[in-house]
Amino acid sequence: MFRYRRYRAFLVFAVIAVLALYKFGASGVAWREAASHAVGAVDHDSEPRPAVAHETKSLKLHVPAATKSQSIETPPPVKKPSPSPSLSPSPTVTEQQQKPTIPSPKPPHPPQDKPAISDNGLDSSTSIEVIHWTKLPERFPVPSKSLIQLPSGKPKPIPKIQAKFKPEDAMAKKGRIAKLEKIKRVAKKSWDGYKEYAWLHDELRPQSGTFKDPFANWGATLVDSLDTLWIMGLKEEFEDAVKAVDKIDFTTTMRAEIPMFETTIRYLGGLVAAYDLSDKKYQNLLDKAVELAEVLISAFDTPNHMPKMYYYWRAEFASQNHRADQRAVLAEIGSLSMEFTRLAQLTGEHKYYDAIARITDHLEEFQSKTKLPGMWPTYLDASGCGKPYVESPSSTEKLSPEGKKFVPLNLPDPVMITSETGGVDLEPKGDPISPKVAGEEHNPQSDMLSPSGKTFVPLNLPNPVLITSDNGVDSGASADSIVPGTARKEQTRSRRKSRQLNIDENPPPKAAIDGDTASPSSSADASMPTTPECVQQGFVSVTGYGREEFTLGGMSDSTYEYLPKQYLLLGAQVEKYRTMYEQSMDVVKKHLLFRPMLPNGQDILFSGKLNVPSNVDDTKVGDLTAENAHLTCFTGGMFGMGAKLFDRPEDLVIAKKLTEGCIWSYSMTPTGIMPESFDVVPCENTNECAWNETAYWDAIDPQYASRKKTHETQMEIYKEQMISASSWYAAQLAAMTAPPTPSATAVSEAQATSTLVYADTLDRRQLADLVDEAEIGHKPSPSVETQQDHDSVMGGEPEEGEGPPTKVQPTLDIAELALQPSMTLPVLPNVYSPGPFLDHKEYVQTRIQENRLPHGVTRIGSRNYILRPEAIESVWYMYRITGDPYWREAGWRMFLAIDQHTSTEYGNSAIDDVTKVTPELNDDMESFWLAETLKYFYLLFADEDLVSLDEWVLNTEAHPFRRPT
Fold first, then answer.
1. What is the phi/psi pair of residue 462, to 5°?
2. Is the residue at 332 inside a domain?
3. How many domains in the chain?
4. For 421-432, how does the pLDDT look when each residue is reduced to its tens digit (9 = 90+)?
């Protein structure tokens, strides 16, 4: 039955809620429409909403800061601090505050439905004023008389490098030409993709048809590919590229710093080589090379004339004093020689050769002083600034922050004040009369009494005297100074607040960055010796007594490669390049070359890495890492060239085995492509090396004994923990209350209930503790005292079931109402068991299967392939040096495998894993794909007189420079 008075409060609340929903719902519509108009979001697919009577206006705020145009400056990249920043003076403005970047211009339109992607991390649509590099006055100029002159004499006779090739029959020529055309088509597709979607940018993303700019946004692929276009006969493409070179502005870049190594080998080398190959017909190529070289040569403006390998070109930073790097990569600082030498030969400017000749001199001096004499470590200190040596002071000597010795004054005992003179009494006699110094007020709190009752007044003496010579006092001492042993009252005339000897209240001038001494103080004698900021030095180690890595691979490679090539480029007129090369290769053959243990017993060689000193065996020079890396695959070609140049026939055998090692590395994978790096088991010697399965397994699982012992220990701990946990669990179960035994149900007679008791008050589910055990389930009529206040309920009318419940017969013998035991069991503590133990055989087989290890390989350090050229480079050199067609056959297999797995719609892309049957594309095509890899493949099948090794010498980016005649 519906009772209005009882539920009227609920009706009131319901009416209010309905009105509120209607009001706020209509208001929300107005706000949504206003917000949509404010952002321009219009839903064309939905019908217009009906107008609201009181529509809210859209919110419009005037924020001056939001409408005011402001310049945008991208924060500079974080640079790692130098190992010893205290050796270089702090510039006025920190380097990080002066290394902003400049955004690139708006990118061209990508292909359909493909957004343009740029790695700059900047809004390409933002308009920012372009900053240009300008030539600044040199802070450390090299006098013209001190320039190292470019050799200008007639080149010395040099042995022939290329073999004498046999005449070619018609059938072989037809097959060779077909292969050439195939290689050219692949190159043409990559070039067309770059021209269409990445023109004047550094690199094409060949899968997505977009671009990226890792090399200063100067068109790296364009400049790097100039000589490739010429060599392949793509003259129309070459002409277009040469014209586009004029649009490159080398005086500005989006990058805060210019990478010296990459810029030199790709840009400077590419321009000079294209100028050489085209018979010097395109003057703009040389002009742009000079424009770039003037920027790069500024990085050599340091005290020791060594370059900053990352040159911060903006004026506010470039105008500061700078030192060369304290942790320079060997390959970067040692691989600038060929490009600057050839530019010097073309322009007649000796400063370009002088810059790199000084680097060579330092390398030559350092070569015999390394931890592996004959080779250089991967990192070296090129700053030219060593820590000054300071003699360790004796136990009685102390040094000031400036390095001067503190010598304590020979002063008397505490001074007594006497009345006779009002001054100082050095030998106190009698009682003190006046505790004063003439002209001063007495401070009783400062009085100190001697045992005889005299007052001690401490002198306001200067700090200990600074001794700057063997036996003299600092000549810069002021008139207030006290000479040891002569303390009298006339030496205390001036009572300055701070009495410090040899103090200059004016700030001292900053020392020159490469000076041996600091500028003397204005109050000091000019001849006063001071501690030098640093000691001039050549190249030194950066690790002190730590371990260093020696390798022909990454971070070292092209420094060794340039030694014989620079010898060729200078016409054999600088003998040191031959000497340095031969010394280094003798050490390489002794310590780095090794034969890998392989199932089929292939007689090949790899060049590994040596860490010096050895941590394993004190009798060994260092620890060899038996690795073969793609970057070291150039060594076959280098050894072959060195063998012909310097009459080292045994090196030619080594060259063949090194090149064979890289060919085997290609053939061992499912894709037919070599990974970036992998490890093998080295043989004891290079003569005999039988396959040893046990040794191979031990190399894959070298920690078997340790793994087994660790697992046994873990199992013992696990068992102990399980025993302890089980005991605890059993104790907890025993401590739990056992359930009571159910008793027989007592018979109870039914009794009539009062007519005043409602039926719903007899609900058996009422709680037992609310039941009065002494009462029967009968409730008499409520008395006046117990009758509830009817007005306390809505409407004042009694509700159904209101008032205290009717008490019922106690039912403690009912199972549901009886006291129940806890049903929650104790929780067993967490005990973790060790994983399943794999024995030696299972572990090795699992690793081989999961890591897809080729038979003989113990570990793959890096599985990707980024279109590298080093392996085909050595194959080309070996074909040109030996004339054996075997190298062409091997090279063609390599080309087919690479093109098959890297080909994309717009070019060729790096892949993620060469051990997969179907690797994934990484959407990267570095400029050396056209500049080196495809060029070497093309030259392998081209006529042998095209870029002959007896007429040309190629830099590390495969750019040919004409040898002097």
1. -75, 170
2. no
3. 3
4. 344 443 433 443
